[in-house]
């Protein structure tokens, strides 16, 4: 019988720090285990991640070779698979590796239908459980504990979205009325100030009503009418030009 793998007191878990997309509808992030396999791994060993539905993790059996690793495409039927094959040296204490692993981040798995182990999107919210498994050329050498159940986010169905807008509350109506009243008062004040400014400008330029009161307009100078000359051949004087008593006009 093969030697059972060593049980390591490590529980995989989500990163404790705030992380955008820590859990999505098809993926989740895991904290990378560091210094966990030191003392158990050789240079040629690899570390795998086993992923199983939470209610199927108890029935998972470690593969005895790489050829027996359950692939991603069998998850719907086998209820588990293995992915993220990584050299054991990447998990050592001195390795400058990223602190987070992304499970389900390879969208090309479904499109290409590859036969090799793949890190494809998770098909349902789960929940899932995961564990790390150290494998050598002769089979499993060490394994961690299973994680707590990890539940993915559930996308909202379009049928659950209410297309009608929500009715505003009474407080919102009162605030809106106050803001509308303040806006009207402000607009009136601005228009009044602008009108006064324009009116003052017109008066300053001599176009106001005071100009019509103070300014006098004179028509063109027309000299008084002069006496008309006598008709040639007549020696009589026209009436009204003598300062003496009126005399009868001389006969022409």
From TrEMBL:
<protein>
    <submittedName>
        <fullName>UPK3B protein</fullName>
    </submittedName>
</protein>
<dbReference type="InterPro" id="IPR024831">
    <property type="entry name" value="Uroplakin-3"/>
</dbReference>
<dbReference type="GO" id="GO:0016020">
    <property type="term" value="C:membrane"/>
</dbReference>
